[in-house]
Amino acid sequence: MFLRQLYYLREIDRLRSFSKAAEACNVSQPALSRAVRQLEEELGVVIVDRRKKVFGLTAEGVRVLKWAHDILRGVTEMRSEIALFRQELVGAVKIGVIPTAVHIVPILLAAIKEKIGDFSGDVSVLPNADIIDRLASKQLDLGIMYYDQCPQAQAFTVRSLYAEEQVLAGTTAFAFPDAREISWEEAARFPLALLGKDMRCRQLVDIGFQTAGVEPVIRLETGSLELIHAEIMRGDLVTILPLSSFPLRVPPAGRLQMRRLTGFSPGAIGLVRLNEAPPSDFVDRVWSVALETDFREELGRLC
C-alpha cells in the first residue's frame, strides 16, 4: 500500500469524479484508476461502487476512506512535528475565522507568542459552514465564528469570545454627528456599501434597520470586505460593519471616522473546537489564551 493510493481515494471522494481527481493529482485517469484497483485487491474489498452511473463508495469503501483520512492526517501531523522540532517552535495551530472577525487574529497570534512562545500558525478565512466542516474533518484545530451559528452538537465545544459592535464608518467627506454614537435612523440617510445578504453580518444590519423601522439607502452590495474598504476610503460611500472587520491601524490616520450604532444588540463571536482531546497540548493552551484575551479592549481603540 502506498500513501498516494490513499491520497487518490481522498481526492476522488472530494471531487466525486475520477477525471477531476486525476487532473487534481496531476496523473492520468488510467493511472489513478489502476492505483485504486490495486488498493482494492490488496485490501480484498470493493471500495468504489462501479455499478452506478453516479459516483459512490461501497459500505466497505466508506470505512476505508475514513482510515485514509486518519492516516493522511497523521502523516501531515508527523511532518509538521518534525518541521517544528527543526525550527525550535513550541507548536502549530490551524485556525479558521469568518471574514468580519479576521482582524482579531493578529491580536490572538501576538498573545500566543507572548504567553507560550514562537509557533507556526495556519489561518484560513472561511464562511461559518466551511469552518464547521473543516473542524469536523480535523483540518482545523479552532474556529472563530458567529456564536449563534456555532454547532450545538455534543461533538463540539463552544465558548463566547466577545460581543460584536456595529459601526457606521466613512471618510470626512461625510458629515457624521459629533457624538460617538449614531442611531439606525440617522445611519439610514447615508449611501451605504454593505456585505451580501447571505452573510450573517449583513443579516444583523438588516435586523437593525427593521427594528428601527427605516429603509436604508444601499448603493453597493458585495461579498468582498476589501472592495467595501476601498469604496469607503474613496469617499463615495459609507458602510456598516463590525469593529473587528477593520484593520487595527486604518491608513491614512484620522481620515476614517466611526460611530457606534445604538438601539440594537448585535451578534457575539464564539470560539469552537471538537469536543475531544485536542491534537496537542499546545493547541489546548492556545484555546485558553484565546479565552483569556480581551479583544474588546483592543477593538475599542478604533472607535
Automatic annotation (TrEMBL):
Q: Which residues form a coiled coil?
A: none
The record's listing under InterPro entries reads: HTH-type_LysR_regulators, LysR_HTH_N, LysR_subst-bd, WH-like_DNA-bd_sf, WH_DNA-bd_sf
Q: Which residues cross the membrane?
A: none
Name one cellular component (GO) term.
cytosol
Q: Please name the GO terms that the record assigns under molecular function.
A: DNA binding; DNA-binding transcription factor activity
State whether keyword Transcription applies. yes
CDD domains from the UniProt entry: PBP2_LTTR_substrate (cd05466)
List, for all copies, the residue spans of the domain called HTH lysR-type.
1-58
Q: Name one Pfam family in it.
A: HTH_1
Q: What keywords are annotated for this sequence in UniProt?
A: DNA-binding, Transcription, Transcription regulation
The reply to whether Transcription regulation figures as a keyword in the UniProt entry is yes
Q: Which domain of life is it from?
A: Bacteria
**Member of which family?**
Belongs to the LysR transcriptional regulatory family.
Protein name, per record: LysR family transcriptional regulator
Lineage of the source organism? Bacteria, Pseudomonadati, Pseudomonadota, Alphaproteobacteria, Acetobacterales
